[in-house]
Every structure is written in structure tokens, then in C-alpha cells.
């Protein structure tokens, strides 16, 4: 995996273009470690996940699947944790959701299987106009995409995408809420970079609290969500310098100077 950092933005680039950035053990562990490091790095205020070459991520490594079928879960190509054999893409997706910083998935090309769940774990998704996203798992007799894709587009639509095995183009993805932005291929990375820089200039610790609130509200009643939100309001103003700065800037009619604290 390639890492590049500038203007408060950390770019994580899946770098196995020869296999469409399929996830093997090494890449999966590397991605998880990078997310955990970014979580505690005060210089990182926003994160972008993108693929090298013509794909975002095609899913788990095919040779890893072959090893899995052979019962060889210790293979270096198997995209499972070497200790508990849990799927590494799910560990990475959970780390993305729990990371207290805004996470952008830059879907630059083919995005299927585990790659689609990684994309759906991001806070904001951008697609190149030529990119496609889908499940593909039904074609190999496997289950999935009830977790993160289901949380993005709803369980029934995620089920249709899974069961049909079809690829969803960028325009349809925008219509159904599977992506937030569609950019032309020639300007894709520049537009994503512009978006990421804007996010990095925001009160990113406050955004992290909003992510925490969003996660805590899942599956709760309306009253429970309201009470959680009230507690988050208190924490925001008591714990976060950017909350006070934003309020003072508004009262003083000036532009706030956010620091991510």
C-alpha cells in the first residue's frame, strides 16, 4: 500500500494493480495498521482510500479463495487474520467506521466484493464516471453485503444488488445513494483532493464526535437518539476547542480558525 500525506489529508492507495487491488493477508493487515495509526496522528485530519490503476478493489484475492477452499487459512494469500481467521476486510471496514476522522472512498474503478464493503464503510463516497460497484458474491455462491452496503442503501436494495450479481454504474449509484459524488474520469483525483482538503480544514474532532453519535444511534428509538444527541452537545462544548472557536467566530462575525482539537 502507498501512503501520501499533505495538507492534513492522508491518502491510502491500495497497490496491487495487477490483481485489481484484491486483498490478501499482507494488504489487509497493512490497511488496518494504517487506519489505526491515522487515528492517533494529530497531523492527519482526513483520510482518502483509493486504488492504484484501473480498479478501486475487486474483492479478496483469488488465490486466497483457492487456499480457503483447500482449508489452508494460514496461506499468505488468504485475506484472514492469522490469529483468529476473521475476514480482514471486515476488520478494516469496522476500523474505518470507528475512526474519529472523516473518511473518503475514492472509487476510481471496479469495486466489488470486499471492496464494495470497504467503500460503504467510508463516510463519503466519490465515483469516477466510468467506475462500477457491486457485490458479485452470488456468482461464487457466497453471502455478504448485508452489513455496510445494507446500511447505506437499505437492506432490500442491497439484497437486490447482491442477488442479481449486477454492476451498478456511477449515475445509478448517485441516484440510489450508493455514492455522494460522481466526477469525470479526467478530473477525478483532483476533485477528490479538493473535497478532502475542505474536510481537513473543518473541525475534524467535532466530526469525529458526530461519527460516534451516528454509530451510537443505530438501532435506537427516537427518544434514545435524542438523548444521545443531547449528551453529544454537552461533550462538544466542554471537550472541543473547535466548538468554542466556531461559536465565537459566529458571534464575532469572522471566519473560524479550526485546528482539529
UniProtKB/TrEMBL annotation:
Lineage: Bacteria, Pseudomonadati, Pseudomonadota, Gammaproteobacteria, Steroidobacterales
KW Repressor (keyword) present: no
Species of origin: Steroidobacter agaridevorans
Protein name: 2-(1,2-epoxy-1,2-dihydrophenyl)acetyl-CoA isomerase
MF term (GO), any: isomerase activity
Gene3D superfamilies linked to this entry: 2-enoyl-CoA Hydratase, Chain A, domain 1, Lyase 2-enoyl-coa Hydratase, Chain A, domain 2
InterPro entries, per the entry: ClpP/crotonase-like_dom_sf, Enoyl-CoA_hydra/iso, Enoyl-CoA_hydra_C
Family that this chain belongs to: Belongs to the enoyl-CoA hydratase/isomerase family.
UniProt entry tagged with the keyword Isomerase: yes
Keywords attached to this entry: Isomerase
Any Pfam family matching the protein: ECH_1
Amino acid at each position: 500500500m502507498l501512503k501520501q500525506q499533505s495538507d492534513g489529508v492522508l491518502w491510502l492507495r491500495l497497490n496491487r494493480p495487477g490483481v485489481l487491488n484484491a486483498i490478501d493477508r499482507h494488504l489487509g493487515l497493512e490497511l488496518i495498521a494504517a487506519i489505526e495509526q491515522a487515528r492517533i496522528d494529530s497531523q492527519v485530519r482526513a483520510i482518502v482510500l483509493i486504488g492504484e490503476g484501473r480498479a478501486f478493489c475487486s474483492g479478496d484475492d483469488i488465490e486466497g479463495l483457492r487456499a480457503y477452499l483447500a482449508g489452508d487459512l494460514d496461506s499468505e494469500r488468504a485475506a484472514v487474520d492469522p490469529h483468529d481467521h476473521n475476514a480482514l476486510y471486515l476488520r478494516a471496514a469496522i476500523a474505518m467506521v470507528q475512526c474519529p476522522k472523516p473518511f473518503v472512498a475514492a472509487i476510481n474503478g471496479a469495486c466489488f466484493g470486499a471492496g464494495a464493503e470497504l467503500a460503504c464503510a467510508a463516510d463519503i463516497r466519490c465515483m469516477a464516471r466510468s467506475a462500477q460497484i457491486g457485490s458479485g458474491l452470488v456468482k461464487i455462491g457466497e453471502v455478504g453485503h448485508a452489513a455496510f452496503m445494507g446500511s447505506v442503501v437499505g437492506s432490500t436494495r442491497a439484497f437486490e444488488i447482491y442477488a442479481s450479481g449486477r454492476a451498478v454504474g456511477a449515475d445509478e449509484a448517485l441516484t440510489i445513494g450508493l455514492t455522494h459524488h460522481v466526477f469525470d474520469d479526467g478530473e477525478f483525483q483532483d476533485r477528490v483532493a479538493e473535497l478532502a482538503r475542505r474536510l481537513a480544514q473543518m473541525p475534524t474532532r467535532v466530526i469525529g464526535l458526530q461519527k460516534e453519535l451516528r454509530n451510537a444511534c443505530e438501532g435506537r428509538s427516537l427518544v434514545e437518539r435524542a438523548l444521545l444527541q443531547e449528551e453529544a452537545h454537552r461533550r462538544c462544548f466542554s471537550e472541543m476547542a473547535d466548538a468554542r472557536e466556531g461559536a465565537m467566530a459566529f458571534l464575532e462575525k469572522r471566519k473560524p480558525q479550526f485546528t482539529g482539537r
